[in-house]
């Protein structure tokens, strides 16, 4: 999916919600365990219940890889089930020497046909560039992450700036707003406005709303740009909203609450631009 299609999708659906399919077989409702592929049965129900409310699904590969071949099969069924026209993210946090990164890119863009993959930038430019060589595909590079450990390296002062600022500036040089996004944690509220000034045009993938306590209002008021420029992810808060027969309805209700709040911020942004 290209940038303009993503921007149009956000406008049409009045949503920049990304539903995170961090599907843990230990946490899904027990009645699904009799299915041949319980993880897919769960994802299918969540997708059916939320597909009109979100613009993206993020599949965190860890929850699938840990199950070996069965997990990869559930991942493949899930990504194939997501309706075309919805943005797909393989949250795999890859990055290695160039020829290895190329294989990772082929895995997620060609074999599994995701629109995007999350990329860890620690190994530098030649580890990220292979992900930028595929038309209408995206690298989503870690910028300032949502977790406590972001202080360990990302918030190290290097000269007159934090390390994460150097990383973002480098990423802006390596990719374009058409093939590169950055991960910015919703929990980093004191930095959101500053990061948007530093990176005015790119989309941000923003995890950390819901279970990690990040505020949708903070993100939206501080980091939205004229094209919206945000994909806000919530995983556990949506997919585990309920645990009974009606779990998908519970998930939908939470997703709907996020979407309705997003529509308000989008309207404010549209009015401000006019
Ligand atoms: O790259 C990510 O998606 C990511 C980056 C980050 O800084 N923080 C973060 O939580 N994530 C991912 O976003 C999801 C957050 O899940 P919930 O906290 O359940 O909404 C998980 O899949 C995390 O692996």
In summary, what is this structure?
This protein has helices at residues 3-13, 38-50, 62-65, 69-81, 98-111, 125-128, 163-174, 189-198, 216-223, 236-239, 247-273; strands at 17-20, 56-60, 87-94, 116-119, 138-144, 157-158, 161-162, 180-184, 203-206, 230-234. It is α/β, with parallel strands linked by helices. The structure holds orotidine-5'-monophosphate.
Folded structure, characterized:
The protein has one domain: Aldolase class I (TIM Barrel, Alpha-Beta Barrel). 44% of the residues lie in helices and 17% in strands. The protein is built from 11 helices and 10 strands. It has helices at residues 3-13, 38-50, 62-65, 69-81, 98-111, 125-128, 163-174, 189-198, 216-223, 236-239, 247-273; strands at 17-20, 56-60, 87-94, 116-119, 138-144, 157-158, 161-162, 180-184, 203-206, 230-234. Helix 2 (38-50) crosses helix 11 (247-273), helix 8 (189-198) runs parallel beside helix 9 (216-223) and helix 9 (216-223) packs parallel to helix 11. The radius of gyration is 18 Å and the shape is globular. The structure holds orotidine-5'-monophosphate (OMP).
Count of helices?
Answer: 11
Total of domains: 1
Rg over CA atoms, rounded to whole Å, is 18 Å
Beta-strand segment tally: 10
The largest sheet, given as strand count, sense and whether it forms a barrel, is: 8 strands, parallel, barrel
Average residue pLDDT: 97
Hetero groups in this structure are:
orotidine-5'-monophosphate
Strand percent estimate: 15-25%
Shape: globular
What is the chain-wise order of helices and strands? HEHEHHEHEHEEEHEHEHEHH
């Amino acid at each position: 999916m290209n940038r303009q299609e993503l921007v149009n999708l956000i406008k049409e659906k009045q949503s920049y919600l990304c539903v995170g399919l961090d599907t843990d077989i230990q946490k899904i409702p027990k009645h699904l365990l009799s299915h041949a592929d319980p993880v897919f049965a769960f994802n299918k129900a969540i997708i059916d219940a939320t597909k009109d409310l979100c613009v993206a699904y993020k599949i965190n590969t860890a929850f699938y890889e840990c199950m070996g071949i069965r997990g990869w099969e559930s991942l493949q069924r899930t990504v194939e089930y997501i309706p075309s026209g919805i943005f797909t993210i393989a949250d795999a946090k890859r990055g290695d020497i160039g020829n290895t990164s190329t294989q990772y890119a082929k895995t997620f863009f060609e074999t599994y046909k995701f629109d995007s993959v999350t990329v860890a930038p620690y190994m530098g430019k030649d580890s990220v560039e292979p992900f930028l060589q595929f038309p209408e595909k995206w690298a989503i590079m870690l910028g300032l992450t949502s977790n406590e450990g972001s202080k360990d390296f990302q918030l190290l002062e290097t000269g007159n700036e934090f390390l994460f600022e150097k990383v973002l500036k480098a990423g802006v040089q390596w990719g374009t707003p058409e093939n590169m996004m950055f991960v910015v944690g919703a929990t980093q509220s004191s930095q959101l406005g500053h990061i948007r000034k530093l990176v005015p045009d790119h989309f941000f993938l923003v995890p950390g709303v819901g279970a990690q306590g990040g505020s949708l209002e903070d993100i939206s008021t501080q980091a939205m740009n004229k094209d919206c420029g945000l994909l806000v992810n919530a995983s556990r808060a949506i997919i585990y909203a309920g645990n009974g027969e009606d779990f998908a309805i519970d998930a939908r209700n939470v997703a709907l609450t996020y979407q309705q709040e997003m529509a308000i911020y989008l309207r404010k942004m549209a009015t401000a631009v006019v």
